[in-house]
Amino acid sequence: MKKPVTPPRDIARELARKYSTMTHDELDVLESILVPMKFAKGEKILREGDICRHIYHIERGLVRQFYYKQEKEMTEHLGTDNSIVMCIESLFREEPTTLQMEALEPTMIYALPKQRLEEVALHNVNIQILYRKILEESLILSQVHADLVRFETAQDRYRKMCKLMPQVILRAPLVYIANYLQMTPETLSRVRAATLLD
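The structure assignment produced for this chain is given below.
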């Protein structure tokens, strides 16, 4: 059975609950700029060379951000229900991105166009706070991932990911989880087996 599409008003409320309290009028404004987008499994949300012009709120689904390094795919981020994804450098520099974004499941997204978000943030302090907190969260997530692969053992990387991203662990193909954690699928299988024995 198909899940009904969440109304934009509920998405605006969800974002407000997570990032900033809002007046009724501010919720109206936030709701008015949300753009619903549907993607089939395997469909690209953003291709290399595109300019990222939106902050994407994943209402439901699974999204992978990746890039190519020496002709190998490198998974940068995996996002699932009620999380935010964006290509932050492309978004702010308004330059083509090297990151690609694809739906790993049928995915429903509500996009926040950066230009409209900045326009309404000028007149609505709580939307300004929401915008800032979304960006802060994105930067912190990038730092957490960088520290994870830089400092942690394979086992600790996997354990932390289980804690921070349980839905991703349950739903993403193992090859992408291994890639995100910068280990081979064989290493990940060993680590998972050892974790289950703990």
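Interim note for the steering committee: The chain is about 50% helix and 25% strand. The longest strand covers residues 72-80.
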